[in-house]
Amino acid sequence: MNRRAFLHQSAFITAALTASKLKASDSRPLIGMDHFSVRATGWKAGQYIDHAASLKLDTCFISELHIFENFEETYLKTLKEQADKAGLKLYVGTGSVCPTSNTWKDTYGTPEEHLALTIRVAKALGSPVARCYLGNNKDRATDGGIQKHIEETLKVIQANKSRAEAEGIKIAIENHAGDMQSHELKALIEAAGKGYVGANIDPGNAVWAMEEPMAHLEALGALTVCSSVRDSMVWDTEEGAVVQWTAVGEGLVDFKAYAKRFAELAPGVPLQVETISGFARPMNYKNEEFWKPYPEYRDTAAFKAWVEMSKKGKAIPSFKAPDGPGKKDAEINYQKAELQRSTAWLQTNL
Question: What is the pLDDT of residues 52-72, one digit of tens each?
Fold first, then answer.
């Protein structure tokens, strides 16, 4: 082989390898962190951005407004510049915007004003979404059931339609703490309008709502514009089952398969880790009282798939920081470790 042919072939091989790496990179979702993973730190937004950068992540999701020191444009611009310098894309969220939910607080005015503020902050920080949610699973047991709260949430979202569209921001509604199952959240998004509303998907919260995460992803993936992900362990008990959230790669979710399908259904949307590990939640579904908030769900294929998942699990210990002067530090170190293992697993295995 002469020198010219050798150089030509070498250049071809280099180009092919580069293209292959780009293709592999493009097929992997961006990886980020939800600030709530290390909530015990009590940090403000700038410190969470620094932590995300230290983990070499792609995104940082500030999912509660009180994390910001203020909402002045100058301060928000400084945060965006900080994130840009670190190569991080910011995502922004808040809590409940449902006035009838047990989780609703009027800290930022009316629900409509609260969501409008979140959209403004999202716009200033370059976030493509303004995340919010309805409430939690306690709302299912109230008069009128979850549907009453869905209708109130829908009104708040629709009141911000023109604002979200004008700013180019998607309102991302999370399936939060067992409040809505996938079919309910899908119906809410479609009723509001898919043009400016999408899902903030959370496979851990799906398990609290007795949905198997891959099935949950199939239902909501095409509507997903944001995420807060963690793994889950579920195991059988005499009363039903127990759920405990875990670091990614340490539970029952096949995250390689999950991430692959996630990238297909929601291209460009990041997998943002929100570890909330260390405590167990009993799901005593063999008790008749358990089913009152879930009429007509007991005999569904979706619930049976969740039960089948529980049969594959095993009991794991919960975490409790030791009492004493070092308790706070122990909680912080535990949360940091859960987040770090999760993001490292995703970075290594995807």
Answer: 999 999 999 999 999 999 999
